[in-house]
Write a structure and sequence with these properties.
Shape: globular
CATH superfamily: Spore Coat Polysaccharide Biosynthesis Protein SpsA, Chain A
Largest sheet: 7 strands, mixed
Distance between the termini: 42 Å
Number of helices: 8
Strand content: 15-25%
CATH class: Alpha Beta
Helix content: 40-55%
């Protein structure tokens, strides 16, 4: 069983050396893991840093997206290039340890053959951030009729079969990808297991999905728009199915 870890990097030139060093540390002696760092249309020196840091590396390789088309698009491009039986994604900001993906992989292997998804569950977060997350998951759960917990927690880990069935056609290209993935899991009988992850302080760069209130409000608007767009799509599909029957 081989694991592919996809990590999108958008303007993460300063964090890339840190994450590459950590990835090499945690994958020493492992032939069952590959890592794909996706230069997601960065406007800084990420491409040059990746080329320098990954020279001669047999475990970590780069995938290039020439023009940024969204967080989700970068992940999907990495997943398309992955070769593993088990697929995962996490973030490049070093706020969550890449080793969390290996912990999730170990848990996944304990349940081999079962319909499961493994995701992170964030600990030691500030009260305001936890309140914000809780509010968002309540809205999403109520609107879509399924239980959704800590939607944006990393990592996300799943089988190639899940990817091929649910992630290759209608998956969104923005930050709604996490929501879409968990919704598909819940509505198609997948059990969602969690591993605890601990948040560290971002050392370099800016958070892309809610680091300050300006970006957080944008994220809220995009997420709400997607939640209700998905609900309308599902309602239309159910209506068409009833007419067909």
């Amino acid at each position: 069983m081989k694991l592919s870890i996809v990590i999108p990097c958008y303007n993460e030139a300063l964090n890339i050396p840190l994450i590459v060093a950590r990835l090499r540390e945690i994958t020493v002696g492992r032939s069952d893991v590959e890592v794909l760092l996706v230069d997601n249309g960065s406007r800084d020196d990420s491409a040059a840093v990746l080329q320098r840091e990954l020279q001669g590396d047999s475990v970590v390789r780069a995938v290039t997206v020439p023009v940024n088309q969204g967080y989700g698009y970068g992940i999907l491009q990495g997943l398309e290039a992955a070769t593993g039986d088990v697929l995962a994604w996490t973030h490049a900001d070093m706020q969550t340890d890449p080793r969390d993906v290996l912990v999730a992989f170990d848990l996944y292997k304990q349940h081999a053959g079962e319909k499961i998804i493994v995701k992170g569950n964030r600990r030691n977060r500030r009260l305001l951030e936890a309140f914000f997350t809780f509010g968002m998951q309540l809205v999403a759960s109520a609107a879509l009729g399924v239980r959704l917990d800590d939607v944006n927690a990393q990592p996300k880990l799943f089988s190639r079969a899940f990817y091929q069935e649910f992630m290759t056609a209608r998956a969104p290209h923005d930050f709604s990808l996490d929501l879409y993935m968990l919704y598909q899991a819940r509505t198609h009988g997948y059990r969602i297991l969690e591993v605890p992850v601990f948040f560290a302080k971002r050392l370099h760069g800016e958070a892309k999905g809610g680091g300050n209130w300006k970006t957080r409000i944008k994220l809220i608007r995009r997420t709400f728009a997607y939640i209700f767009e998905l609900r309308r799509t599902l309602a239309n599909e159910n209506l068409q199915a009833k007419k067909a029957s």
